[in-house]
Write a structure and sequence with these properties.
It is built from six helices and eight strands. It is α/β, with parallel strands linked by helices and 187 residues long.
Length: 187
């Protein structure tokens, strides 16, 4: 029985629910590319079935921020996903802020442990510092999913070095997430 991974490429190509911008790059473009790379890696494994929230670069969900998030969660829940991985880039007013981090609904949960494995994979593949897992019960995609859900902040789009790495080497981030998922599931 395949493990069903729902890849949520954070944000829409345009508003509503467009993402952060920094260093001439858009979050929604980076998350789309990393999600496509991750989907290809998981599909090639044979142990996974994959669904992406944005199957094409122009795929947009919802007519507002709220409905965009609701549709992602409803799709994953209806599909019966085993895990939900939402991909994002971080942003800060401090250009030197950096590193990868992730969020789950609560501490000590399967999602928290999956997030830890994903962060270790990203840090190992990219060399970015691991800022660790944080608990964010207020985030809609973590609160309303029926399966373990992790929101991953790949790196900081506002950090010139990290933005360039995410833009030029999305496969490193995808491989890091993939390694975290395979480590977590033992496949």
């Amino acid at each position: 029985m395949a493990i069903k991974i729902y890849i949520d490429q954070g944000h829409n190509p345009e508003n509503p629910n467009a993402g952060a911008e920094g260093n001439g790059l858009r979050e929604q473009d980076i998350t789309y590319r990393v999600g496509k790379e991750l989907g290809a890696l998981l599909r090639a494994n044979g142990n996974f079935e994959v669904r992406e929230s944005r199957p094409t670069p122009t795929s947009a969900l919802g007519t507002s921020n709220t409905t965009s998030l609701q549709l992602r969660v409803q799709d994953a829940n209806a599909w019966g996903a085993d895990a939900f991985v939402s991909i994002h880039t971080n942003a800060s007013s401090i250009p030197s802020a950096g590193g990868t981090e992730a969020f789950s609904y609560a501490n000590g949960t399967p999602a928290f442990r999956l997030g830890e494995d994903i962060l270790e994979g990203i840090s190992r593949e990219t060399g970015l510092s691991n800022r660790g897992m944080k608990v964010r019960p207020g985030l809609y995609v973590l609160r309303r999913t029926a399966m373990p859900a992790v929101l991953v902040e790949l790196g900081f789009i506002t950090n010139p070095e990290e933005a360039a790495l995410m833009n030029n080497s999305p496969e490193l981030f995808a491989r890091g997430i993939y390694e975290g998922i395979t480590e977590y599931y033992g496949v």
